[in-house]
Amino acid sequence: MGKKRLMVPAEELDLSAVKYEQEKVKAPHLTGFGLKLFVRMIETPMIGSLIMSFLKKQNRVVELLQNTAIPEDPMFKPEFPPQEPEPAVVTLDEDGKPEDRVSLALECLPHYNPANCWSGDTNHPFRYWKIRDYAHAYRSGIATPSVVVEHVISVLEEFSSKKPPTPLLISFDAEEVRKQAAASTKRFEEGNPLSILDGIFMAIKDDIDCYPHPSNGGTTWMHEVRSVSEDAVCVSKLRRCGVIFVGKANMHEMGMGTTGSNPNYGTTRNPHALERYTGGSSSGPAAIVASGICSAALGTDGGGSIRIPSSLCGVVGLKTTYARVDMEGSLCGGGTVEIIGPIASTVEDVILVYSAMLGSSLVDRLSLKPPPPCVPNLLAYESSDIMGSFRLGKYTEWFNDVYSTNISEKCDEVLNLLSKSYNCEVVEIVVPELHEMRNAHLVSIGSECLRSLNPDCEDGKLERLTYDTRISMALFRSFTAADYVAAQCLRRRMMYHLLEIFKKVDFIVTPTTGMTAPVIPPSAVEDGESDMQVTGYLMRFVVVANLLGLPAITVPVGYDKQGLPIGLQLIGRPWAEASLLRLASAVEELCPLKKKPVSFYDVLRS
């Protein structure tokens, strides 16, 4: 038996004695025959439980959960104390019309003249078209949604015919998209667009309902047990604003992976390097935005699943505060770590989409009492003064725990730029008990996945899941009720630590991922792979925001020596999306140079 560990109460922990421990995940890297054999072994009674028990002990899961006395009471979902109001923001009515919220958000954006981008000068550096560019093109008659939709359809059909398949979408109906575009075009002809988002093309991750498409969660069978009769709540709000939905985007099966690998339909490729992963699980949403085909997409994020692929593909991804966006109509609506959030090529486009889709459910409003949602007024005269008051928390040893120093050095450069340009103060912090936090997150998300999928697995669907998903399911089945309660005790403990940190700083700043886009092994194309070392690097900085429900955003800040995108992650106080978006906008302005992806399509100008 392992020796019992005693934790002192969180408020008595001596932070000066905390030693950072580098994370080293101990598990085999498996593809091909080895992967299949391993799955067969762990699904065999007795042998499987012995293997899982060994792996968990190797990775200190048993020590950190079962052999530890945790003095805190459990916290079964994020709970936040009342927060101070944010400065220089515009409050949005979550019960009002989404198109009115978008209008208010639009008025908060800096002045921008889209006509300058149509001057015919082709020598300007690469940039993505913004939502405001599309709106200008439609309103001035340069283009119509019906013209652009033909370019979009042509590109998507090209992707669907590739061998081996590398689809961006896994449910797509060209005629249905044409109908949406025709209706939008008619509104522009009549001079009555619904909002700035009218005629904007978006993709929806395959675990969020978007009628009439099925929601398969990247599986081949979910539509057999769950039908879709209407849009998810957040999708319906975007539809009211005139958004055109191109279909359901590819994803890592059931969100249970960080690379975006999906042997069921084919693995989406990174637009910056086609031999590399996009990151996951929101692989299709990030890639379709990075490729220029859609202005924005919706993803879900339970363990970095918006931020990881956004970072690896060089776009912006927002994880909102837990319960800021209604989860009804998604496959992960009953969890405590998951959110639905926007992915776009610019911070301002994230602001516009977020403004349309936000709004807590009635249940969450009653239990969590969220303050009204806000967006930053980026036109405010005091904007630079506000930026100068921001304190940025950096835990240097954690910050530097990356696969390549290219990542930490590039992110450090941005912190220096923020200090020089805005007088932001960088404050050294300590985030204690990161190993405990990762285990608490793993047990929480794993138990919630198991609760959701177990009835179907018992009904014979387990063998129709991909091999790496089956490894995850075997691990999740090994968790006990005592593990789950211990994880929730750790959640309360970690919440205390983070709220104490936020008394000293306004944001915690890290690289988004510990490595840039990993190569797809040829042996993983057909059956997938299990590589926990890669997962460890990709998830290194993201899960604190999921376990504790905090808002976080990734912003592209540059490239490594191989030309692969690097993302900077900003983590904010509970409900402080507006301040987070203000800082993200400043970071974006300081890092203007963008590389044109290898796989890029100019669907507006084609």
UniProtKB/TrEMBL annotation:
GO cellular component: membrane
Sections of the chain in a coiled coil: none
Stretches assigned to the Amidase domain: 158-581
GO biological process: N-acylethanolamine metabolic process
Molecular functions (GO terms): N-(long-chain-acyl)ethanolamine deacylase activity
Similarity section: Belongs to the amidase family.
Protein name: Amidase
Record organism: Trema orientale
